[in-house]
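Fold Annotation — chain and its backbone

Encoding — discrete vocabulary of local shapes
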Amino acid sequence: MTGPLVEIAPGTGGDWRAVCAYHDLLPGRGAAVLVDGHQIALFRDRGGAVYAVGNRDPFSGAHVISRGILGSRGTAPVVVSPMYKQAFDLRTGACLDEPAAPGGEPAALPVWRVRLTPAASACAGDVAPPNGGAHRPETARS
């Protein structure tokens, strides 16, 4: 991998794991990665922010969220499931359409923290605040 790397970690802590190069994520499209047995949907929006949420749609049970459509509801960046079209907030994982999935389970996607780190061959890295901050070039290192 060259250039900045996308790393993810569970929302409540855990080790950071490099999953792909930032430039491998196409703006406005999703990609799926497998980390420790979890399918994770990665998104890079057109503004450069990177998000990581669970890939399993809680309404259908299918692992398809990475194939969803990116958009927004008000100020919330969302992915719309390709199955039944529920919208999920990419920052929190919450479903904006229904509070519960069939069977009563919460209608939410798990969220992973995201950061960009420079690859070993990069002279200057890019950084992105966790899940949803705008991508910006790094200007100084201490």
Summary: The chain has one domain: 5-135. The chain has a mean pLDDT of 85.
